[in-house]
Amino acid sequence: APSRRAPKHATIVNRQWSNATYDFIIAGAGIAGLTLADRLTEDPNISVLVIEAGPFDWGQEGILVPGSYQPWWFFWPNLVTVPQEGLNNREIGAIAGQVVGGGSTINAMVYVRGDTSDYDDWGSLQEKPNMSWQKMLPYFLKSENFTAPDARFAAQNNITWNPAVRGSSGPLQYTYPPHSYPGGENWWNAANAVGLPAVEDPLAGNKAGVFAMPSVMDARTMTRSYAKINHYDRVSQARPNYHILPSNMVSRVIFKGNCKTVKGVEYLPTAGGDVVTAFATKEVIIAAGGFNTPKILQLSGVGPKPLLDKFGIKVISNLPGVGQNLQDQPTLTVPYTFTANAEPNTDSLVNNATYAAEQRALYETEKKGAFTVISTLGTNIAGVTLKAATPDFLDIISTARAANPADSLPADVDPTVLAGYTAQREAILSQYENGKSSVGNIHWGTGNNALVYHLKPLSRGSVNIVSTDPLANPAIDFRTATDPTDQAVYTALLRKNRELFATPEMQVFGPSEASPFAEAQTDEEIYALLRDQINPSNAHQCCTAAMLPRSLGGVVSAEQKVYGVGGLRVADISFWPFQTGGSPTGTMYAAAERLADMIKADHGISRN
Ligand SMILES: Cc1cc2nc3c(=O)[nH]c(=O)nc-3n(C[C@H](O)[C@H](O)[C@H](O)COP(=O)(O)OP(=O)(O)OC[C@H]3O[C@@H](n4cnc5c(N)ncnc54)[C@H](O)[C@@H]3O)c2cc1C
Fold it and tell me: Which one of 94, 118, 137, 544 counts the least CB within 10 Å of its CB?
């Protein structure tokens, strides 16, 4: 392991911040938190304090070098679900980043936007629709800087893109790893053979089909590009108005007397210690991720009244939706054995020391080779619509439409939360029907596992506090696969993966699904397998403080202002109404850029 040397920023002492006053205080230095802090402090007259539960990373190889990926350095400790009723009551570890940069510091660097239908549908659910693909696109472009791969390499590896949807001057760097494994070409051709055509550009608002995965790394160094570098290191030397306090947890938001306007926050060292206060003259912005944002709100008296009453927390704003509507993109790892797999493949870095040493040398000298690829994945992936997954897709949809949405939620669900679920469920079922929106991804890195992801489940869970201790983790209940539609969709996706592996292109490798997958053939056997094997999370937990009208169980308005209080917004992935067909990173950077403009407009702060 790399040696632990003190990060240069760790000079901040907790006491110095006690009773300090800032214009804005941001809880959580993840993608949203740091993007906002950067944009707000562009005005030298605006002061921002970001309080972050985790430390600064110290540039360790497992964070920076894709092929040496070691995300566990900064996993949030002891996150585990309650027994999952749809998954044989398994209690399953959940993952979130606890580090400056949040998920961006440890994520798998996959960079794929959602579909046009996602942002359009988010907008159509609002009272004042101000969200759509067209409204997001300028912010995608503002947030990012795409470096094109070598033209010959791109042509050889089916890498295509549309420059009109690729940003060229933003802080987030991304490119394509200059490496491919031989088996990847067979898999690509097999995908084409089973009706998954090549996608011209997966970032253009429709990613159904097969494509090479863009990766958030700096093409100059082939190292991770993440929020700490893009939105703090890049500007911090010149910004005395931009402060980060690491290794401290916001415990709650505090309000002025009875007027329900934000006054500031209380916080304490993550390792435990005294609670102190910092004051915000303009706004407090919660950006603590899908598990911790609802926890902070609930501890602050913003949440479902019955839950707050249970813990004797004074109700500031009774919002039944806080902590409800939890969603993720469940994953299924399908193990294979091969009689003649192509080599090298994604397992070779681990299994073949000579190859690993060669590739390491190639990375050091030319910034090429297997170390430019995140070690847990390959380079190609396919987005799958429900129509592409199964000819029975209309039956699945009509069965889901015939069901009572209330049956998918706990019996004591608040009526507004149920109304919101009913509305978003119909939007998602329309996406299942349209033949364009991806409901799943399938991926084969070229090693001993394929991955099948469900991107748009109908099951909904919750995140609720279990005590008033600010250091205690909340109860995480994904309720994965409690809606029977999800089992049917997952079964179709697994069968699509099987169809792909049954093509002559893949059969040359002699693949066989390993036990217990091989034995599961009938619908009932596959359902039983899924209950035993699904991982409820891809660390994409979202939607627990949803941007929806209050009558639909919403927590924040279309401007991401928390209902019923003044001066409080939610910036992180918790604000999403439902999952996109992409991976979250791109949407989070762009959404935070968009929110920064809204906040600046509200406060008359100058805009770049
Ligand atoms: C291991 C892993 C792999 C992933 N792979 C991918 C991928 O390949 N592609 C992709 O697009 N997405 C991926 N994701 C998901 C993506 O990184 C997240 O969805 C994204 O970072 C969410 O951004 P955010 O701003 O909402 O919150 P985050 O980036 O999660 O930031 C929240 C921050 O708030 C801090 N915090 C929490 N509570 C408190 C508190 N009380 N006080 C102060 N600070 C607090 C946390 O420590 C964290 O730093 C992955 C995530 C993980 C963890």
Answer: 137
Helix axes 415-433, 116-124, angle to 10 degrees: 150
Which residues, other chains included, contact 358 with Cβ-Cβ below 8 Å and sequence gap of 6+? Answer: 369
| Contact indicator for 545, 321 with CB cutoff of 8 Å | yes
DSSP-based helix, strand, coil % in the chain, nearest 5: 35, 20, 45
| CB-based contact 245:52 (threshold 8 Å) | yes
Residue 249 among known ligand-binding residues: no
DSSP E strand stretches across 361-510 = 380-384, 440-444, 449-454, 461-464, 475-477
pLDDT, tens only, 8-54: 343 344 445 567 899 999 999 999 999 999 999 999 999 999 999 99
pLDDT at position 257 over 90? no
Tokens of 319: 């919002």
Cα distances (Å, whole numbers) of residue 555 to 102, 115, 270, 562, 582: 23, 24, 27, 6, 23
| Residue in the block written with tokens 């979130």 | 96
Strand duo 302-303 + 317-318: pairing: parallel
Q: Is pTM beyond 0.95 here?
A: yes
pLDDT digits (tens, 9 = 90+) for 347-362: 999 999 999 999 999 9
Is the omega angle on the peptide bond into residue 163 within 30 degrees of 0, that is, cis? no
Mutate to test the pocket of ligand 1, among 25, 26, 31, 110 (most ligand atoms within 8 A of CB): 31
Of the candidates 24, 49, 102, which has an alpha carbon nearest to the alpha carbon of residue 242? 49
* Cβ-based burial of 89 (10 A; exposed 0-12, middle 13-18, buried ≥19): exposed
Of 174, 157, 179, which Cα lies nearest the Cα of 221? Answer: 174
Specify whether the CB–CB gap between 484 and 522 falls below 8 A: no
What b/e readout covers 502-534, taking b as 16+ CB neighbours within 10 angstroms? ebebbeebebebeeebeebeeeeebbebbbebb
- Quickly tell me which residue has 């217990």 as its tokens: 516
> Which residues line ligand 1 at a C-beta cut-off of 6 Å?
27-32, 51-54, 71, 95-99, 102-104, 106-110, 249-250, 287-289, 292, 296, 539-540, 572-573, 583-585, 588
263 within 8 A of 283, measured Cβ to Cβ: no
Distance in Å from the first CA to the final CA of the chain: 42
Q: What is the DSSP letter of 82?
A: P
Asked if the peptide bond before residue 2 counts as cis, ω within 30 degrees of 0, the response is: no
The dihedral formed by the CA atoms of 146, 150, 153 and 159, expressed in degrees to the nearest 10: 30
Q: Compute the distance between CA of residue 451 and CA of residue 453 in angstroms, rounded to an integer.
A: 6
At position 277, the amino acid (one-letter code) is T
